[in-house]
Amino acid sequence: MIISAGEGRQLTVPLAGIRSPAAGASRPSVLDRFLSYSGKRTIGALVPLFEAGRDDREMRQEPVVALSDGTTELLMTVSVEPADTPGLKFVLIGLHFLALQRSDDRHWQIRAVPRKGSSRASLMVVTDRSVVAEFPVTVAPPLEVGPESCAADAEVLTGHQVAVDPPSDILPLAEAGEGGMAAAYVHTANCLARGLVTPLRASVPAGSR
After folding, report:
1. Which residues are bridge partners to 100 per DSSP?
2. φ and ψ at residue 16, rounded to 5 degrees
3. C-alpha distances in Å from residue 200, one per residue of 63, 74, 98, 185
4. How confident is the model at residue 203 (pLDDT cuts 50, 70, 90)?
5. Is the N or the C terminus of the chain less surrounded, counting Cβ atoms within 10 Å?
6. Span 17-59, pLDDT tens digits
7. CA quadruple 111, 114, 120, 124: dihedral sign
8. Which domains, ranges and CATH numbers included, belong to the chain?
9. How far apart (Å, rounded) are the C-alpha atoms in residues 181 and 190?
């Protein structure tokens, strides 16, 4: 889905017409970090993976972890200098667009709802069909968790399937042999999203220095 910043409306330009991100334009997602992680599998050890590499100065999402239950709204604030860059567009992947507004001379705010059951989503900043930056958006399918399963020393779910409702795109990861840490990601994300563990550090306003 492509949103024109100048007109604040959804466009139907095919993604195939947009050039791939330049080197360094894409950031690894939290799920990517989980899939490459080989350390201790407790909630206390895994929560820091949600903070590693996070930089709210360029893009901030609220809430920091959004559940893809089909109703949870997400606010993304992205820094673009200048905010009136000609041909500026935003590409939403795994997200349903709700609204777009310019908040000041270098910030745009996008409201969206994660696609139901999704574990991956991203926001691309595009000018003249070239990707300036691609920001991963942290989303996870809902999972029933409680205080005991979210304690710092609790072992996370690492089975090859995660019982989530609705069915999630986590399942193809299981088929590819990556289901263990994909399940750990969903488990830990739900503990954070439901406020059952120490929350992540406060966000720094996007664009601040």
Report:
1. 110
2. -60, -20
3. 10, 17, 26, 15
4. very low
5. C
6. 444 445 446 788 999 999 889 899 999 999 999 987 677 788 9
7. negative
8. 2-193 (2.60.40.10)
9. 14
Q: For 119-150, b where at least 16 C-beta lie within 10 A, e where not — what string?
A: bbbbbbbbeeeebebbbbbbbbbbbebeeebb
Lowest mean pLDDT among 12-16, 83-87, 156-160, 170-174: 12-16
CA distance 126 to 108: 13
What is the spatial distance between Cα 96 and Cα 5, in angstroms, rounded to a whole number? 16
For the ranges 20-34, 104-118, 161-175, 177-191, the lowest mean pLDDT is seen at 161-175
Is the Cα dihedral 5, 64, 38, 186 positive or negative? negative
Would you state the structure tokens that stand for residue 172, as one six-digit string? 């193809």
Check if the beta carbon of residue 80 is closer than 8 Å to that of residue 106.
yes
DSSP 26: B
Whole-number Å distance between alpha carbons of 114 and 75: 11
CA distance 141 to 128: 34
Q: Coil, strand or helix: which one is 114?
A: strand
